[in-house]
Each structure stands twice: as structure tokens, then as C-alpha cells.
Design goal:
Elements (H helix, E strand, L loop, with lengths): L1 H15 L1 E7 L5 E7 L2 H10 L6 H12 L2 E4 L5 H10 L5 H6 L3
Helix pairs in contact: 2-4, 3-4
Length: 101
């Protein structure tokens, strides 16, 4: 009985450190994505340079890029910001240095 009680306590603690995101797409489909606390923030760091991203991270980034809206635990808007960043036009580094666009 002690093991079961400890397992339930561990599940409760780990649930407190999880983030949940519901992505909605133009075709009406929905994708539920969850991860450890801070996983969306980690995706922000990976969005600039995907060289350190795992295949799962790349899949999630692509899903966020293709989504039209999202709902996050805690009523956050990190995925909305990340989607805007991923879908924004990029300025080539050479153009940014010489002042051309």
C-alpha cells in the first residue's frame, strides 16, 4: 500500500510540472501536445537554430508553425508568440548588416 501511495504522490507532483498545449489547425483538426514545464520556452531557443533539436522537437515546431491557434495551460500565449516567430519573414544576415532589406 505504501508503494501505491508514493506512486500517486509522484504522479501528482509531476502533473504540477507539466505544460499542456492544444493546437488547432485550418482543417478543424486538433493536436494535444504536452511536455515538462518549460518545454515551450525550450522550443523558443531551438526555433532560431534547429541544429540541436531532436526529431520530436522538430515535429512539434512544425506543428506549431502550421497551427492557426492554440490553448495553453494557465491561459498562456507562448505558442502564439512562437507561431508568429516561426512564420515571420527572415532578413538575411548580409542584408541586415549593410542596411538593405
Amino acid at each position: 500500500m505504501t508503494v501505491l501511495r508514493r506512486l500517486r504522490a509522484l504522479e501528482k507532483r509531476s502533473a504540477d510540472f507539466a505544460e499542456s498545449v492544444t493546437l488547432r489547425f485550418a482543417d478543424g483538426s486538433i493536436l494535444q501536445q504536452s511536455g515538462r514545464q518549460g518545454f515551450i520556452l525550450r522550443l523558443f531557443r531551438l526555433s532560431d537554430s534547429c541544429s540541436d533539436a531532436s526529431p520530436e522537437d522538430l515535429r512539434v515546431l512544425n506543428s506549431i508553425r502550421q497551427s492557426t491557434s492554440s490553448e495553453e495551460s494557465g491561459n498562456g500565449h507562448m505558442c502564439d508568440l512562437l507561431r508568429a516567430l516561426l512564420n515571420s519573414p527572415c532578413t538575411p544576415p548580409d542584408a541586415a548588416q549593410d542596411g538593405t532589406k
